[in-house]
Amino acid sequence: MLERLPSSWNLARLRLVVQLFTFFLTVWGSTVLGYYAADKISTALPALSCAYDQQNGGYCVLIPLQHQMHHRIGEALVKAQQISQQVLLPTLISLGSFALFFFVLGKAFCAWVCPLGTVQEWLNRLGRRLGLQQNAIAPRATARVRPWKWLILLSLVFAVPLAAGMGVAPHSLGNPYCDVCPSRVVTTLLTGNVDEFAVNESSWLKFALGAVANTLFGFVVIAALALRQPFCRICPMLAMNAMLRHASLTRLVKRQSDKCDKCGICHKACPMDIHEIHTEHGRKAFHEDCTLCGRCAEYCPDDGVISIRFGPWAVFQSSRNYYKQRVKNESPNGDPKPIRIVRKKDAADLA
Amino acid sequence: MACLGLAGAILSLALTAPALAHEAHEGGRSPSRASWSSQPLLQSAGRPGERGAQAFRVAGMSDAELRVFAPESPGQSVLADKQGDGWQVAALAGSQGGYHWLLAERSESGKVLRAATIWSFPGKGSSPQGLLQTPLAGLDLRPLRVPEKGAFRENSSWSFRVTWNGLPLPGRDVFLETENGSRQRFVSGSDGVVKVLFPADYPADAIDPALGAVRTRKAYLLSVAHETEGMQHLSTFSQFYSPALLRERSLVWGAVFAGVGMLLAAPLIRRREKKHA
């Protein structure tokens, strides 16, 4: 489908245009859409579009989920009331909105929409331009990193807010994930608001949460210069998006090919260091860490082995010709190729 | 200093003049007033009741009627039932909650008094944009925007529009009074819009430790007067404002911890080794 784009375009450029658009929408979108929740795209986006940024055009599903755990379900359990429709409905609406968005675009929210993902990607490009050595996470080490996103989702998004609602944990732990989320700091700073960068000193707990948030923010900003998508690897939204990835219309498909054994370029191209994209095929190749950026499909040198599908249609699929064009501009691991300046005559000779 | 004192006295006289005139006209009846303002003031009272119903009382105005406007139909109002010395108001039937415009009004010979506020009832509700862009006939004062998340805060600027029969009223004095004791005068521009900078007037000990700067709040009131065809019109808008968040937050600590994070990531930063031929 995307092969019909003009020759100067490729999937990465298309993604950049989408990222620029969604970045504006998720950070400053209220200037176009309107300021109030009713005007926004949704209050349950599967991307870290921060609700603390008052100029955003739609916000992240994680904040209503934490509030519902805290104020609805937790408090209702304590009062020993029946889990009525009144209690569950708001949670179901949040999860339902999320599922609706997710059903259409799936994990593409991570690589095409999330503003924090975009910022990290741009920082990494800057790091490469500055000539910094790039780091990758080895297959063995990924096994240690991957559980963290599930742990953060279960503890900071569900369990702790629920405990706060039940009175077991302090009230100030009502939305602990937001309190430590670097996207909150990044997106509010981008709107010129320093309130979220400042650390709350009113209690030791708030101070500790602020300290974690800013340390994480500082770490991500520097680490992203030398490591692709450092925060995405532990992001609870990645875990949320992973749960239903096989049910989504938009998904990654890899078919078995004998040539894959000796290749592995797709693994080098993957910004999340997912080695399974090289070693597996079928359902296992569409890994829980995949952000659907499409780089593996772009850099697969074989026709039709890896594709991004929307329902029954292949939106993009790997091809040898595309690969040849793509590596002229950027190596699979993300290094930009130096711009070649050639005289007209030499260019004609080369041709 | 003497000039400042004189200016303060003139300002305080200007602020109290309409209310003094009103009191004289009441002919001995003495409607209860807010302790910090002599102007008509519509305010919530107590905590929300069942299904988010909220009690409201008006000070500085007696025998008023309260009209409620829902965001879904900003031009239509419903008269609230009086209960005791105030009203118990819930989101209007057919509304999904959210911001409602409340207007207490009293007309008498030679004078029209209005006290308005905006209140968010439980539920996501429709956007209040329609409510804020639909001025009523007569003298109207309403914000161009209200905070959806967070609050009006110290040191932040918010715009309000003064209209007369729906048309902008330029060059009009708009007075701000706060529960913390500030008194300021602003003037509406050619489009009737007045930009109000909320004063940083919270005393250091006024932040409730249990609520923090996020939820501590005090009332403010904006008032504007207009006289036409022998009728005096006085309209007020009141709501709450909160302390600046930076009062209990530290940018220095923010920078320190961001620096710690950067240092932790520093081992990842290495210059790429140049390939030798």
Can you put this structure into words, describing what you see?
- The complex is a heterodimer of chains A (351) and B (277).
- Chain A folds into 2 domains: 2-239, no CATH class; 251-329, no CATH class.
- Chain A contains 17 helices and 4 strands.
- Chain A has helices at 11-28, 30-33, 62-78, 85-105, 108-113, 115-129, 139-145, 147-165, 176-180, 182-190, 204-226, 236-243, 265-269, 276-279, 295-298, 320-329, 344-350; strands at 199-200, 250-254, 306-310, 313-317.
- Chain A has a 3-stranded antiparallel beta sheet with strand order 2-3-4.
- In chain A, β3 and β4 (313-317) form a beta hairpin.
- The two termini of chain A are 29 Å apart.
- Chain B has 277 residues and is an alpha+beta fold.
- Chain B has a single domain, classed as Immunoglobulins (Immunoglobulin-like).
- Helix content of chain B is 17%, strand content 38%.
- In chain B, the strands form 3 sheets. In chain B, strands 3, 4, 7, 8, 10, 13, 14, 16 and 17 form a 9-stranded mixed beta sheet that branches. Chain B has a 4-stranded antiparallel beta sheet with strand order 1-2-6-5, with no helix packed on it.
- Residues 1-30 of chain B have low confidence and may be disordered.
- Chains A and B meet through β1 and α11 of A and β18 and α4 of B.
- β1 of chain A pairs antiparallel with β18 of chain B.
Tally of alpha and pi helices of chain B: 4
CATH superfamily of chain B: Immunoglobulins
The largest pleated sheet of chain B is described as:
9 strands, mixed
How many domains of chain B? The number is 1
Order of helices and strands of chain A: HHHHHHHHHHEHHEHHHEEHH
Strand-pairing-aware structural class of chain A: mainly alpha
| CATH class group of chain B | Mainly Beta
Q: Widest sheet of chain A: strand order? A: 2-3-4
Helix coverage percent of residues of chain B? Answer: 10-25%
Q: How many strands, which pairing sense, and closed or not: the largest β-sheet of chain A?
A: 3 strands, antiparallel
